[in-house]
């Protein structure tokens, strides 16, 4: 079926979405999920508008709005006020139990990785956490194609990576550089759901109300703490996965 569904297409799909005893908003949700699952409506495609659905299905706009709201809450679609409703971008999967290079992950999916450097500097260290007087501090935004997918806020031990500030992090990721100069022997991380700050949401191009997935990760090489990173991901574009044996 063409992605620009006609009124007749919508009426036919709605009739096939369940018996009349099923609430209309549930049938609309099933219709949309079915078309997305079948690959007929792809991530980024605009869905039929509420006025078109009202006209094609003979259902109240309130009912259609409820279906769209519930699909939005479930992360199936995204709504752009004044523009329309779109199939949500496919979520990016990140490994939970491994420390991988984000550029490699994105390229394995056949997408293009790029990085924007917000700042790269030296600053005073927290004596309770670091064995040095100063730390290197970088703030980077990683992109999957043109979508910001991770805000990387990283502190680095200058003694473990003295050349950190001299690196071009649009050409090499901090993960790749640190793996070369201070190979990882131990790591720890904490994962939590958070709301980003106004600055963080602006850098990730998301609304302040969108939940984020935060990974706080520290890594050691030999006996020295090398890096402490806050990796912030838009909740609508990310998920974590991992496996373990018992």
Automatic annotation (TrEMBL):
The lineage of its organism: Bacteria, Bacillati, Actinomycetota, Actinomycetes, Mycobacteriales. GO terms for molecular function: DNA binding; DNA-binding transcription factor activity. It comes from the Bacteria. InterPro entries: Bact_HTH_transcr_reg, Chorismate_lyase_/UTRA_dom_sf, His_ut_repres, Tscrpt_reg_HTH_GntR, UTRA, WH-like_DNA-bd_sf, WH_DNA-bd_sf. SMART domains: HTH_GNTR (SM00345), UTRA (SM00866). One of its GO terms (biological process) is negative regulation of DNA-templated transcription. Transmembrane segments: none annotated. The keyword Transcription regulation applies. Keywords: DNA-binding, Transcription, Transcription regulation. This is Histidine utilization repressor. It holds the Pfam family UTRA. It comes from Nocardia arthritidis. Residues 22-90 form the HTH gntR-type domain.
């Amino acid at each position: 079926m063409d992605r620009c569904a006609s009124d007749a297409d919508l009426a036919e799909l709605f009739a096939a979405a369940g018996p009349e005893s099923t609430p209309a908003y549930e049938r609309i949700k099933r219709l949309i999920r079915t078309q997305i699952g079948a690959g007929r409506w792809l991530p980024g495609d605009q869905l039929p508008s509420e006025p078109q659905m009202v006209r094609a299905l003979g259902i109240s706009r309130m009912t259609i709005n409820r279906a769209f709201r519930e699909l939005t809450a479930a992360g199936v679609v995204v709504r752009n006020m004044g523009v329309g409703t779109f199939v949500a971008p496919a979520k990016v999967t990140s490994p939970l139990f491994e420390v991988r290079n984000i550029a490699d992950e994105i390229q394995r999916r056949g997408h293009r990785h790029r990085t924007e450097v917000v700042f790269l500097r030296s600053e005073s260290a927290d004596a309770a956490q670091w064995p040095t007087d100063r730390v290197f501090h970088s703030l980077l935004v990683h992109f999957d194609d043109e979508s910001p997918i991770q805000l990387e806020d990283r502190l680095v031990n200058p003694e473990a990576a003295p050349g950190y500030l001299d690196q071009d992090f649009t050409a090499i990721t901090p993960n790749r550089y640190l793996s070369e100069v201070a190979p990882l022997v131990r790591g720890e991380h904490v994962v939590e759901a958070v709301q980003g700050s106004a600055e963080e949401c602006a850098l990730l191009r998301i609304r302040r109300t969108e939940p984020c997935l935060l990974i706080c990760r520290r890594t050691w090489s030999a006996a020295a703490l090398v890096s402490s990173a806050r990796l912030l991901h838009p909740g609508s574009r990310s998920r974590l996965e991992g496996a373990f044996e018992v």
